[in-house]
Amino acid sequence: MQAEATARANIALIKYWGKRARALNLPAVGSLSITLDGLATQTAVRFDAALETDRVVLNGREDEAAAGRVSRFLDLLRERAGVKTRVEVISHNNFPTAAGLASSASGFAALAAAAATALKLDLSPEALSVLARQGSGSAARSIFGGFVEWHRGERDDGADSFAEVLAPREHWPLQVVIAITETAPKGTGSTDGMTQTEFTSPYFDAWVDGQEADLADARAAILSRDFEKLADVAEFSCLKMHASALAARPGVIYWNGATLEAMHTVRTLRSGGMQVFFTIDAGPQLKAICEPAAAPSVRDALAAVPGVREVIVTGLGEGVTTRSSE
Ligand code: DP6
């Protein structure tokens, strides 16, 4: 009962922010993302009757803080498989975990796939997405590669809230330049930030109301490879998400000075004719999405922004891959 899986991080172009039900991680809105090639989590699981508790090793270190969330998640799979066996989970990220680079998305997608394979659950990709969602919402999207849409769904049991491929990565081989402006762990995690926004921000309802129109614009822009249109709607979604969080009480501020400088740098490049736009998740790193020809200039411009510590360039990635080892 052991298996290994690799899943990649994703970044949302139309954001997930807010939940319609907390226990099952059901989103208040649908969202749309790209899966990244260069940021991967590799996870090995081994169910072992001799273990008394679940054991979680992250990047070479036993992690008791992560073990609670991982155990609760694995209980969902154990329940389905009708077993109580404890498990050892060994997981590596090839990128800085604390830097707010969506490690929970790739982490729970890899864990869901590895554990389902080890338990021989034989789940469809949609069912795996539903499962990964319960570990971390954005993990629902990392099951798939390329351009991915996660449906809000209507049902209370969450069976219709899964992700699927909108277009494969070959459809439009965009590049992503990630500007790391801070390596310390973030102050407010995404789960807490969205809860605070939902309960206290006067802009939260407006955020939810605009989502269907943004999703429709983004889908059309991606399917017709219309860069200007995608740039416009993706920056709109990102800034609206952050505006709703900034208007919470107390306000949730994810940016630092370098994040803001990097935003201006991207806007300056775009007004000079370069095909590039930015997006920012629940942390201070900026991700610039660009056409391949623009990537070297975008990388150099972002590396020169004071406060940018490191720049990572990557393309679009594939969905989760699994190997079972008897
Ligand atoms: C800002 O998936 O980390 O990155 O479901 O509570 O685990 P939980 O939240 P998480 O939230 C991601 C929020 C975001 C936007 C996005 O990825 O769509």
If you had to describe this structure to a student in words, what would you say it looks like?
- Strand 5 (55-58) and strand 6 form a beta hairpin.
- The chain has helices spanning 64-81, 103-118, 125-135, 139-142, 190-200, 204-209, 211-223, 227-246, 257-271, 295-303, and strands at 2-14, 19-21, 26-27, 31-47, 55-58, 61-62, 87-93, 147-150, 163-167, 175-180, 276-279, 286-290, 310-314, 321-324.
- The chain starts with a strand and ends with a strand.
- The protein is of the alpha+beta class.
- It has 10 helices and 14 strands.
- Helix 2 (103-118) crosses helix 3 (125-135) and helix 7 (211-223) runs antiparallel to helix 8.
- Strands 1, 4, 5, 6, 7, 8, 9 and 14 form an 8-stranded mixed beta sheet that branches.
- Bound molecules: ligand DP6.
- Ligand DP6 binds next to helix 5.
Class of secondary structure makeup: alpha+beta
Could you say how many structural domains there are in total? 2
CATH topology of the largest domain: Ribosomal Protein S5, domain 2
**In angstroms, what separates the terminal alpha carbons?**
7 Å
CATH architecture of the largest domain: 2-Layer Sandwich
| Number of strand elements | 14
| Main sheet overview | 8 strands, mixed
CATH class of the largest domain: Alpha Beta
Keywords for this entry:
2 domains; alpha+beta; 326 residues; Alpha-Beta Plaits; binds ligand DP6; Ribosomal Protein S5, domain 2; 8-stranded mixed β-sheet
What is this structure, in a nutshell?
The chain has 326 residues and is α+β, with helices and mostly antiparallel strands. It is 38% helix and 25% strand. Ligand DP6 binds next to α5.
